[in-house]
Amino acid sequence: MQKLKCYLCAQRVSPYLVKNGYTLFQCQTCGLIQTDLKKEYQKFVKEYYDKGYFTGDPKYCAYDEYERDKVYILANLKKMFGRLANYLGQGTLLDVGCAMGHLVKYANTRGWDAYGFDPSAYALSRVPQEYKYKVKNGTIDTVSYKPGMFDAVTMLDVIEHLKDPVGNLKKVRTFLKDDGYLVIATGDIRSAAAKLFAKHWTFFNPPQHLFFFSKKTLSEVLRISGFKPIEWFTLGKWLSLGYTLHLGRSVAESRLAGKLYNVIMKFKLGKLPLFIPMNDNMVVIAKKVKS
């Protein structure tokens, strides 16, 4: 049996922790954390990101009620989009993993020509009718766009879901104009929250998350893929009380969170807002390096 090696530098990895029946491995050289899906990726994606993923099905450690939480999801997207707007006033945008199209709709109302794609047919069925022609069902591996079509590509909480981040970013790079921008948001394994919560950190969530990055390893992924980081920042997030407790009971495996979740849902308090200043979600704006 062939031993698993580091995806990024091909060096030795050792077990880091076990979660949801999956072993996470950390590279002893570069620090990248990864897991082995051991499933055919396209089939897995098609089956995994169904209605239950967005509606609190207990078999997933995913969303509680995605549609209910639209206002908070959009608030977080707007903050990241606003930083991109510092570099580009308007232009063409591709949102990778667009889900129900919240960012696609918002960007279009702000004067952008925005498009998106997502592997979830269920999520795309909830995209507003007037924007359905701007979204596709598929993954980075299966979709196609004209070379150099976009001024910017956003991948917000996406890269950790990919089986081949470098290969996928190289393909995304072809979608961008020569001076195009890429925005990535993902968890930071070097953050205080990751260290504090350890196994119960919300980003340690296989099999939906397959890779776990630090600024160092994500920088290397970008370099290999043909991008140069130009700005790094972290953001707290707006979440609903229901989703926060759902994460606690599912990802963090907290019995107390589970009991509180049942109480607040009984009294219909799930939509109450919470600002979580964890700053464990790092965001990088990178520029395409010309060939």
What's the quick description here?
The chain is an alpha/beta fold and 291 residues long.
Give an account of the 3D structure.
This is Methyltransferase type 12. Pfam families: Methyltransf_23 (PF13489). It comes from Candidatus Gottesmanbacteria bacterium RBG_16_43_7. With 291 residues, the protein is of the alpha/beta class. It has one domain: Vaccinia Virus protein VP39 (Rossmann fold). It is 31% helix and 28% strand. The chain is built from ten helices and eleven strands. Strands 6-5-4-7-8-11-10 form a seven-stranded mixed beta sheet. A four-stranded antiparallel beta sheet has the order 1-2-3-9, with no helix packed on it. Strand 5, helix 5 and strand 6 form a beta-alpha-beta unit. Helix 3 crosses helix 4. The radius of gyration is 18 Å and the shape is globular. The chain starts with 12 loop residues before the first strand and ends with a strand. The mean pLDDT is 94.
Based on the coordinates given, report the CATH architecture: 3-Layer(aba) Sandwich
Q: Write down the overall mean pLDDT.
A: 94
Q: What would the principal axes of the Cα set say about the shape?
A: globular
User: How would you write the strand order of the largest sheet?
Assistant: 6-5-4-7-8-11-10
Protein name: Methyltransferase type 12
Pfam families: Methyltransf_23
